Amino acid sequence: MGVADLKDIAQAAYGRELRDVTRLHGGSKKGVYRLTLDDGTTGIAYVWRASEDYWPTHEHDPLFGNASGRDLFLTAHTALSEAGACVPRLVLVDRDTIVVEDLGGEFLEKLLDHDTEALERLWDDLQAVHQRTSPRYGRPSALQPEDAPPVPDVVLERALKHLAECCERVPRIAAERERLETQLRQRHATIEPRPEYGLIHGELGPDHVLVADGRPVLIDIEGVMFFDVEWEHVFLELRFGRHYRPVKGLDPQRMSLYRLAQYLSLVEGPLRLLDGDFPHRAAMREIAEQNIERALTA
Q: How far apart are CA 218 and CA 84, in angstroms?
C-alpha cells in the first residue's frame, strides 16, 4: 500500500499532501503505516482490509475469533482511556481506516533492561485497568448474557479444540494427547465460580507498549475485553519473563489452567498463520516451537 492508496486519508486527517508511506513491522490482521506529510510531520494509519489480513481462517467465536477491526479498536480505545491507561490520540476515523498520532518513542521491549520507571508505570496502569470490573464477560460493547458458560468452561473448550488441532500438526503433542487432555480437565475441575471480571488488554507483550515521554502507551488494543484477569497475567509472565511483576489475589487454579491453554493456543495459532503467506515466518515458527516445549512440560 502506497501514497496513492492513502493520500485521501492523509488529506482528510491533516489537510496536507502525503509525501511517503512506510509499512511498519507487525500486524497480522491489519496494516500499520507511517504517513509522512509534505511538511515532514507524521501520523500512523491502521488499515483493516482483506488484503492486510494474513490469517487463512478465523475462529468463529465472539471472544477470540478475529479480534480485529475498526469498531473493536474504538470500543477498546474508549474503555482503556476511561480506565486511566494511555492510548494514542485519535486523529481520523474512516470506514476501514483509523489515523492516530505518531508518538515516536521506542517499544518497551527495547527498554526493559534500563527503563524501570516506564515498566513500573505500566504495571500501575494495568492494575487500574484490571480493577475495572463487570458482572459479565466479553467485549465492552457486547457483553455475554448472564447465562453464558463461565470463563473457565470457555477456556477449557477452546483449549481442547486447540489440543486436537495441534495433534494433527505436531507428532510430539499427539503422543501426549491423553495426558494433556487429562491435565486440562483436572485443572479446570478445581476452579471455583467467580461473580465478576476485570478489563484486560488481551495480548499485552512489551512489543505492544510504546514509551513516549516516559509514559507507557498501549497499542494493538482490539482484543480488550472483560475476562478473568489471570488470563492476562499468564500472558504477561510469558512475554515479560523476569520483568513481570506478580500481584496478590490471583487464583492459582485459574493460572494453572490458563497457562496450559495459552501454550496450546500459541502453538495452534502460529502454525495456522503459516498456512497462509504471512511474511515473518521464522518468528512464527519460533513461537510455535517454544510453546510446544512449554505445553509438554507444563
A: 11
Q: For residues 7 and 96, give the distance between their C-alpha atoms in angstroms, rounded to a whole number.
A: 14
Q: Give per-residue pLDDT as tens, 126-140.
A: 999 999 999 999 999
CA-closest candidate to residue 62, choices 136, 170, 172: 136
Core vs surface per residue 215-236: b (16+ CB within 10 A) or e: ebbbbbbbbbbbbbbbbbbbbb
Residue 129 lies in domain: 3-297
Q: Which residues contact 291 (CB under 8 A, 6 or more apart)?
A: 263, 264, 266, 267
CATH number at residue 84: 3.90.1200.10
Per the structure, the count of domains in the chain is 1
Q: What's the pTM?
A: 0.92
The whole-number average pLDDT for the span 213-223 is 94
